Amino acid sequence: MGEAACRQIRNICILAHVDHGKTTLADHLIAACGGGVLHPKLAGRLRFMDYLDEEQRRAITMKSSSIALRYKDFSINLIDSPGHMDFCSEVSTAARLSDGALILVDAVEGVHIQTHAVLRQAWVEKLTPCLVLNKIDRLITELKLSPMEAYNRLQRIVHEVNGIVSAYKSEKYLSDVDSLLAGAAGEVEQELVEDDEEVMFQPQKGNVAFVCALDGWGFCLSQFAEFYASKLGASTTALLKGLWGPRYYNTKTMMIVGKKGTEGVSKDPQPMFVQFVLRPLWQVYQAALEEDGDKRMLDKVIKTFNLSIPPRELQNKDPRVVLQAVMSRWLPLSDSILSMVVNCVPDPGSAQSARISRLLPKREFMVDDTGLSSDVIAEAEHVRKCVEACDSTSDAPCVAFVSKMFAVPYKMLPQRGPNREALNNQPTGEGGESEECFLAFARIFSGVLHSGQKVFVLSALYDPLKGESMQRHVQEAELGHLYLMMGQGLKPVFSASAGNVVAIQGLGQHILKSATLSSTRNCWPFSSMMFQVAPTLRVAIEPSDPADMGALMRGLRLLNRADPFVEVTVSSRGEQVLSAAGEVHLERCIKDLKERFAKVSLEVSPPLVSYKETIEGEGFALLENSKALFSGTEHVEKTTPNGRCIIRIQVMKLPGALTKVLEDSADILGDIIEGKSGKRNGSSSSNTPVDDGDSVATLRKRIIDAIESEVESLSAQLDKERAEKYRKLWYRFLQRIWSLGPRQVGPNILLIPHLKAGNLDNSSQGQKNILIRGSCDVSRRLGFLDVETDDTIAVVEESKEETESPYVEAEALKSSIVSGFQLATAAGPLCDEPLWGLAFLVEPYIFPDSSETAHQPDQYGIFSGQVMTAVKEACRAAVLQNKPRLVEAMYFCELNTPTEYLGSMYAVLARRRARVLKEEMQEGSALFTVHAYVPVAESLGFADELRRWTSGAASALLVLSHWEALSEDPFFVPKTEEEIEEFGDGSSVPPNLARKLMNSVRRRKGLPVEEKVVQHATKQRTLARKV
């Protein structure tokens, strides 16, 4: 297939909020251009792409699936994707393989939360979006809007969607400006100009379509412009500009004018879009659906546009059938959408050159003297250039990206090849895949793939410059059969060239979820896909019969490969834990396990909700304690069992904005701390992706911005001098970061001792003690250390030479202190959940070993282990001493409900401890939109209860939002007279919410729980005996 054939390909995905009409739209496109796989009369009712039983039963799409369409001379690969938030990972897999996206928005419901999510996904993956306003008929039949009111609503939706996209553009613009100010490469400037030239969606540009997928009609402005051009004798270009916006048609002068030009011509001038487009549509609908409608209007449309409609359809007694027959022939949906796709979405060659910075970010190198790396780099650059140009010649290096693996029963595979030869598609029996065959959902970006070809499977961590050390990240595999996907059906092909989307057999044992395929080892792997949410709903599963454990383990392995988002882990107690995105996703995973992969009966635990632990306190409270902080009067002290090391720990709360930045930047921090951040502040590495500016500089700026925003928010409560003091205090802390935790990248900070901290004054034996000064590794890597600080540290280090051996021992114990901190932050004192948003100031003192015990083995074990335990216990004790609090995850919840069910909906929210943020009535409808925060712990069964109480009228969408500390003290005991009067004395106080949650987690983990076993002894003693 040559370059000309590559230009005739279009790869698109359909993205939208749930129930906005994606699969119905796909049905009409398939009926028109799918080669006869779907009859036009069944389009919209069959939901061809929802071929799973669960999808048909629930009437929602649960996976992304592809189908190849032929429109005129073009080959169009259409990928239908889910709209439910639980399956947003499938949206990511669809977006990566596409070049353009059809963004559907319901004309009645408007922009919803998932619309924001899919627009961001399209923006991140650099797709070319087209806007499709669906369900236009509901404006006529349900809302009974006039053409002018409908025009205002449509205009508002287009404006809102443009506002979302421009927000992403300005976000990119600001981040680029930040990188430029931070001294990043100046080549970003060219991008800024072209990005900001005009709004994204403009109907006159042809990238906005107005459709009714259920009735099978739709149009772009160009269709009406061409029709009226001949009728009015005007140019199509002039009409295109006039048919949207405040443009009016002056019937006297026969000219397109602004609003001022209509004065004296009409009392109520209407825009051309209303006059020439919407009014005829309204007239056709009223003629067909209303009893006293003018039936001659239908005949006029049929005659004017020379439509051939069978008489039996026009004589049908159901007015909806008559309407569909006229509208689908007058304004066929498939022609409008596919002509827009062909004109607006770029071909693979143009698209890949625009997307290359996202797919294969450019890298910087440090070339070795051996010359080996230069050959590898040259070949990797050649591969990148071929991907950028979408080189489809047979001698080009072959590169493909597998976005997910999907399971197909062997009996569903084709038994005949392209030339009707028999295919050996029989179960291999390997790895428990007796009935399921795994196919790779892939897009070819360069070269030509053949069945039987040998390729290298590269994981996301593969680095071609590291050679032998990267063996575990690369495998050689032989491709099985190649298939063109036709929804559920598969069409075998011998080969496929660049720009095509195919299913590949034979990679089930080599790829877990996603990977890059390459004909050469010297190729960089594609960048990882972005997922909107993380799997937060976790349950423990076990077979009902312990003898089925082997089948469950095999089933979990297959499920983990078949679902791009599910996570299978083993807990510390040895349970098999399944993590899913939400309730619907979890139900589908359990059903697949029971019926397809494991085929055993399962026991599923209640959800294992994650919590975090922190302490109470606001930022400015730190100022009150700053003297105590440096004088060391408020601290927790722990001594190792052999008495040779004393650990002092002080704990304080981080500003909320700083905690959020550290939590959100875990991946970048991991790269920086492991030394993958290029040549900055002494760290060096072989390569670094050049993404949007320097990641170190960007992250440093975000941390400083977080501190500044905290100071700004506190400036209302503090005077200027104290606010400045608070700022300087945190800047000093940022220069003393020894480590982050847990797992080296978490939202907790370990600070080195203050440089002025001296020796212990209360040394018991009068021995000299040494303060173990940590190293500011993280501060140095983040670029917070200035010259002055470095000099001070150097002076301290020089003074170590006095007595060599104790200092050497102190140096060796640094890693034990960091390990103790990591253990403490991974499991807090309340219920062994990770700590969140805390800074620990550590002062470890070591005493020299006395001569008598120098050569004897320590009866308490290895000294480094004792130090590690002491640090962990000191950190936990410090948290308990400073008013510990439990932190729970919160969902952002968007609800839509009719007015009459508003009370029932609020009752459900109240029972779930929800906090309502805002409520507003949707203009032109009886629906209310309510935004609220719902705790993750209370969300299980929320959607079902809401449907039950509102008779199915209310719908809810949950997205993980943030972490929020509970204000209640889990160890609360009434002390003051007012508290005793309100809650009673300590013996009869019921456990508060924080205590209940803490106890439930401790009980689940097998930790001791302080609670009364016998609640009312007198009542139990006097129970009647049934003899």
Content-based structural category: alpha+beta
Beta strands, count? 36
Mean pLDDT: 80
Taking the sheet with the most strands, its summary is: 8 strands, antiparallel
Assembly status: single chain
Unreliable spans are 183-196, 627-633, 676-693, 787-803, 851-856
Q: How are the strands of the largest sheet arranged?
A: 15-14-20-11-12-19-16-17
Number of helices: 35
Helix amount: 25-40%
Strand content: 15-25%
Q: Report the end-to-end length measured between terminal Cα atoms.
A: 90 Å
What Rg, in angstroms, do the CA atoms define? 33 Å
Describe the global form.
globular
GO molecular function: GTP binding; GTPase activity; ribosome binding; translation elongation factor activity
Domain Tr-type G: 7-236
Organism: Cocos nucifera (Coconut palm)
Keywords: Elongation factor, GTP-binding, Hydrolase, Nucleotide-binding, Protein biosynthesis, Ribosome biogenesis
